[in-house]
């Protein structure tokens, strides 16, 4: 069996798939494999491109497989002999590209002067790596030139590659086996003052264009670009999605997050910047475009948030004629394609109720197994009036968390932090009962409880010798939420002390069956957004007891972070109107266009939005999403580099019918 695809490359071995033999004269590829490959060949070739590091194999991505025996039409691509990272630029190679095989080659490099020593050695850095340059002893002109230059000067250097002398190789550098003997240096630019490198975050954001020169940020942004390219490839090429841009200037959406308001020249008329393309993507499906996606720019005016951005990017998807399980399978395949490590699919699933009961949060970190345990029965009739009053109050319960080997890590500083967290949760406190070597519980609460009650409590919670039992009592929801926060805090505390708690690698998790509505300040609001479809088993409850209805919303969680949220949508106009008017008490006039569209024959549809910034940060191991965004805002939403937001002129106030604050 042979399969032909229009390609340009060389002989490529494929693990467990035979060998691809390439005939460059006819630009075809024959797959010689022990089994019929059919459509699988294209997927295997795409996989090769991810694993290989040659420009020729990179061209595999630029060609579309055609029918057997007939070559397909290639997309425009640079010749294989041209290295992609240096095409259309002054250089022949990047500063991270040269290897021992390049010895004897004449090259031209461009970059920043990073280091100089003894008037003989310099290192040149660009966005791809660092190369060591040698200034010849016989050419004092070059030495004098370099001595006069400040660091971070922009240079173009021509020279010859040679192997480093034995014993002088640097295994910490990708280019550590070679050095370039400089023949000529052209100064393209030089800084006028000392530059603020290695500064605190505020200064780094002020001089972001300098901060971007750091290797970590360079690698993060290139990883982001690669992940987006893989996502587009998966959706457009593999699954025939249509990439559609939707407006960012829209009108206010009832029941959503706070939106940025944009004034217009018409008095009293304002746009809102979209918090998501939610309505547009539903309208696209109603219009017959039932496989939509975009890399969407979104905006939310949520005030100062330490690790949120007022403008952010999401991978936005919507499908018609689909189900929740099919949307989830699509996302799993997409992440399997773009993630830097191998992922095991399908991802595990847990209900919202299970997540809150077992972990005290709807975005649990399942890299470690600590779970919350209800111990109310073990503490009934314990004789402590304060405790029994909490258990007998509204929704009263006692919940415990056992921290394995945590007794010796429960310092006074940790206790003080736990007390502050309990106060923030609205609870009287959290009790700590460390277990000794024999498994007997201690702490301030142990003596008043008595040995028998402590024994029952330890058995109910599963505490053993050396463990730390944390106990919270009061309204069950508040107690579980507090212990969920303490679970994360104690995991961090132990790991800071050198104890391995979390398993390595990405651990994705689907959380499903969220409430459809929640009560805030005495009224029902949408738990996510008002277009979410009720759970199939609970649709009738929306009309009789909406607060008890579950939804077809689902979140994707990675290592304790929510990275995506999706749902099936309401596609019947009567149900949508009932939710908006009767349940939520919203004015439907701003959404009349959507109601009219639903009444025009809307198919069942659903979708998801994945937070690209958070996904890339977790894939790159970055401590903050600001480290994977080229020009992020500060924690209080300001652009420290350009000084935005800023005032406008008097004429602009008048143009937009605004009153300048006094």
UniProtKB/TrEMBL annotation:
GO terms for biological process: aspartyl-tRNA aminoacylation. Residues 224-645 form the Aminoacyl-transfer RNA synthetases class-II family profile domain. InterPro entries: Aa-tRNA-synt_II, aa-tRNA-synth_II, aa-tRNA-synth_II/BPL/LPL, Asp-tRNA-ligase_1, Asp-tRNA-ligase_1_N, Asp/Asn-tRNA-synth_IIb, GAD-like_sf, NA-bd_OB-fold. Keywords: Aminoacyl-tRNA synthetase, ATP-binding, Ligase, Nucleotide-binding, Protein biosynthesis, Signal. GO terms for cellular component: mitochondrion. Residues 1-21 form the signal peptide. CDD domains: EcAspRS_like_N. GO terms for molecular function: aspartate-tRNA ligase activity; ATP binding; nucleic acid binding. PANTHER family: ASPARTATE--TRNA LIGASE, MITOCHONDRIAL, ASPARTYL/LYSYL-TRNA SYNTHETASE. Belongs to the class-II aminoacyl-tRNA synthetase family. Type 1 subfamily. NCBIfam families: aspS_bact, PRK00476.1. This is Aspartate--tRNA(Asp/Asn) ligase. The gene is aspS_2.
């Amino acid at each position: 069996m042979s399969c032909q695809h229009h390609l340009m490359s060389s002989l490529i071995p494929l693990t467990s798939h035979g060998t691809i033999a390439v005939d460059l004269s006819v630009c075809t590829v024959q797959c010689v494999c022990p089994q019929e490959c059919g459509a699988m060949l294209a997927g295997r070739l795409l996989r090769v491109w991810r694993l290989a590091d040659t420009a020729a194999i990179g061209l595999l991505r630029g060609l579309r497989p055609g029918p057997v025996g007939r070559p397909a039409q290639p997309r425009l691509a640079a010749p294989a002999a041209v290295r992609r990272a240096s095409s259309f630029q002054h250089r022949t190679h990047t500063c991270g590209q040269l290897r021992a095989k390049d010895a004897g080659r004449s090259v031209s490099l461009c970059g920043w002067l990073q280091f100089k020593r003894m008037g003989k050695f310099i290192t040149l850095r660009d966005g791809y790596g660092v190369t060591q340059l040698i200034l010849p002893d016989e050419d004092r002109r070059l030495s004098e030139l370099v001595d006069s230059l400040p660091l971070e000067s922009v240079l173009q250097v021509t020279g010859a590659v040679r192997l480093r002398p034995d014993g002088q190789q640097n295994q910490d550098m990708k280019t550590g086996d070679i050095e370039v003997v400089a023949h000529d240096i052209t100064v393209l630019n030089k800084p006028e003052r000392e530059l603020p490198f290695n500064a605190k975050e505020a200064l780094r954001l002020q001089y972001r264009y300098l901060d971007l020169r750091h290797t970590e940020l360079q690698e993060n942004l290139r990883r982001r670009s690669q992940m987006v390219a893989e996502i587009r490839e998966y959706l457009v090429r593999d699954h025939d999605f249509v990439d559609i841009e939707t407006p960012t200037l829209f009108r206010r959406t009832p029941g959503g997050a706070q939106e940025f308001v944009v004034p217009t020249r018409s008095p009293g008329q304002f746009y809102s910047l979209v918090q998501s393309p939610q309505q547009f993507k539903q309208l696209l499906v109603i219009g017959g475009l039932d496989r939509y996606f975009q890399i969407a720019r979104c905006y939310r005016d949520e005030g100062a948030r330490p690790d949120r951005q007022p403008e952010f990017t999401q991978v936005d998807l919507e499908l018609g004629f689909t189900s929740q399980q099919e949307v989830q399978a699509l996302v799993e395949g997409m992440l399997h394609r773009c993630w830097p490590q191998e992922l095991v699919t399908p991802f595990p699933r847990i209900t919202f109720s299970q997540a809150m009961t077992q972990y005290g949060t709807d975005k649990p970190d399942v890299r470690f197994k600590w779970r919350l345990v209800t111990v109310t029965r073990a503490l009934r009739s314990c004789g402590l009036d304060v405790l029994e009053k909490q258990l007998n109050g509204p929704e009263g319960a006692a919940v415990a968390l056992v921290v394995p080997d945590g007794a010796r890590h429960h310092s006074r500083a940790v206790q003080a932090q736990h007390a502050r967290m309990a106060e923030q949760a609205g609870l009287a406190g959290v009790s700590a009962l460390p277990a000794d070597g024999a498994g007997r519980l201690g702490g301030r609460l142990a003596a008043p409880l008595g040995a028998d009650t402590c024994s029952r409590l330890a058995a109910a919670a599963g505490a053993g010798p050396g463990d730390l039992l944390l106990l919270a009592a009061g309204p069950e929801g508040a107690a579980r939420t507090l212990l969920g926060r303490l679970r994360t805090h104690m995991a961090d505390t132990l790991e800071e002390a050198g104890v391995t708690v979390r398993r390595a690698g990405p651990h994705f998790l689907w959380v499903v069956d969220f409430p459809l509505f929640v009560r805030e300040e005495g009224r029902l609001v949408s738990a996510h957004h008002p277009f979410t479809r009720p759970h199939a088993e609970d649709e009738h409850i929306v009309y009789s007891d909406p607060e008890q209805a579950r939804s077809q919303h689902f979140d994707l969680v990675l290592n304790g972070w929510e990275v995506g949220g999706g749902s099936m949508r309401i596609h019947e106009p009567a149900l949508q109107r009932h939710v908006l008017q009767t349940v939520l008490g919203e004015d439907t006039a701003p959404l009349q266009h959507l109601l009219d569209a639903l009444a025009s024959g809307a198919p069942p549809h659903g979708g998801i939005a994945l937070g690209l910034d958070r996904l890339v940060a977790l894939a790159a191991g970055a401590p903050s999403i600001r480290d994977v965004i080229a020009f992020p805002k500060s924690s209080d939403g300001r652009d420290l580099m350009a000084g935005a937001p800023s005032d406008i002129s008097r004429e602009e106030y008048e143009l937009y019918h605004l009153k300048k604050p006094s």
